[in-house]
Specification:
- The chain has helices spanning 36-58, 67-75, 97-101, 141-157, 173-183, 216-231, 257-272, 284-298, 303-310, 316-325, 354-357, 364-378; strands at residues 6-12, 15-21, 25-29, 88-91, 94-95, 113-116, 163-165, 188-192, 199-203, 208-209, 245-249, 276-280, 330-334, 342-343.
- The protein is an alpha/beta fold and 383 residues long.
- It has a single domain, classed as P-loop containing nucleotide triphosphate hydrolases (Rossmann fold), CATH 3.40.50.
- Strands 6-11-12-3-13-14 form a six-stranded mixed beta sheet, sandwiched between helices. The protein has a four-stranded antiparallel beta sheet with strand order 2-1-4-5, covered by helices on one side. It has a four-stranded antiparallel beta sheet with strand order 7-8-9-10, with no helix packed on it.
- Helix 7 links the parallel strand 11 (245-249) and strand 12.
- Helix 5 (173-183) runs antiparallel to helix 7 (257-272), helix 7 crosses helix 10 and helix 9 (303-310) crosses helix 10.
- The longest helix has 23 residues, at 36-58.
- The termini are far apart.
- The mean pLDDT is 90.
Length: 383
Amino acid sequence: MMKPRRMQVRNFGPVQEADVELGDLTVFVGPQAAGKSLFLQLLKLLVDRPSIVPELRRNNIRWGSEPAEFFRIYFGEGLGEVWSEQTEVLMDDRPRRRDVIASANVKESPPRVFYIPAQRVMTLRDGLTHPFSDFRAGDPFVVKFFSENIHRLVQTEFVTRDQLFPAEGRMNATLRAALAQALFGSFRLQLDRREAQRKLVLQSASATLPFMNWSAGQREFAPLLLGLLWLMPSGRVARKENIEIIVIEEPEMGLHPKAISSFLLIVLELLRRGYRVCLSTHSPHVLDVVWALGILQQHKSRPSSVIKLFEIESDPFVQKIARAALEKSLKTYFFPIDGPVRDISSLDPADDDEEVRGWGGLTSFSARIGDVVADVVARGGRQ
């Protein structure tokens, strides 16, 4: 089965026109409601329709012959009209409109895209995992399916473990320590078995914190972390069979920059394992790292420079991650509110194009603050 490399879209919801070539790491930036999430959900639909349609039918979800009915079920309530007669979609230069809107039975195959949505905190309400059937029909498919995956993971694969993270055998020790310190401090993520249904709690030597007493960043990151643990099997198996693309929306929510750095180190490990990763973000910190990696690649830097970016101790495993990072392709796209999606992959701070040098608006405000402050200082405080 061919791996998707290029996706072209016209007149799809707020996306007027997009021509996106997927790199090993592809980053999507832009303001809210510009279409980043819809574009990524459409990517999953194009690649994974043979797993999506059977999953919907297993959960007794039906739709009629009108395309809008299916899109309301897949994208979520109120989004049935994102698709119109003017919508055009190509995957690797092949028209795919008919493949998307057809509602006939399809031959089932495993999903190839693992999607971690921005609304992931919904999957751990009160620290309990939730199956697909707990959600409303109008909730986005990617939220329900991710929640189902997490639910199965906690109730089956992790059933013999009380402590989920940090735990030996799950993630390399160096990565595990960096992430644990940045996210949980002296606490550990574990299962509380005192009730009928296993519940996630944070446990220290002297206290147990229920879900509602966690920080916002811990609540947002815990379901993402569970997904990451599943994607990185221990032993000689580098990756999950069939999964080719990992989509992670807004991983920075609620996180301190140090925690974002630790997460990005995990992303580099995913790349080393052979996955391709798509991130949507509003964090300049994420683009800082992507820009720096691009510069290091251009100058044929050594792995030691990558390791310095993350301020961690060097060891043979981390060196493998750094070496692989210098060989991966990096792409960045800007989704505007109005106008075509832009390839800003150079991230050149000296570019004449404001969207390129301002990284799709993520650094332009800070630059303007610096200009105003510098002007005031130069004038001796008078304006």
